[in-house]
Amino acid sequence: GRPVIATSRIDAYDGTSVPFHYQRHEDHETVTECIPAIDFIKRLIVHIPDRHFKMVRPSETALSFQASGLA
To answer: Degrees (nearest 5) of the Cα angle 27, 4, 26?
Structure first.
């Protein structure tokens, strides 16, 4: 699957803190944060699905059906 954050957005790691950047969707501004490593890991693990969780993805047929305006 797709990662939670691209490694290119992680600017550094000094053993205690992780500076990273992302683009805020509301105003398209680039935001840089520097947080403790443990908090960074906590933010990442929220995105790990539970064991045996089935990911449901739309099929190409469903996507083309939506794009045609019939959905």
So the answer is: 10
pTM across the whole model: 0.68
Residue 52 φ/ψ region, left for φ over 0, alpha for ψ in the -120 to 50 degree band, beta for the rest:
left
**In this structure, are residues 8 and 20 in contact, taking their beta carbons and an 8 Å threshold?**
no
CB atoms within 10 A of CB 18: 21
Please, what is the Cα angle at 67 between 29 and 23, to 5 degrees? 10
Span 48-58, average pLDDT: 81
Rounded distance, CA 22 to CA 1, Å? 20
Q: Is the pLDDT reported for residue 60 higher than 90?
A: no
- Could you tell me how far CA 40 lies from the centroid of its own chain? 13
Cβ neighbours around 65 below 10 Å, total: 13
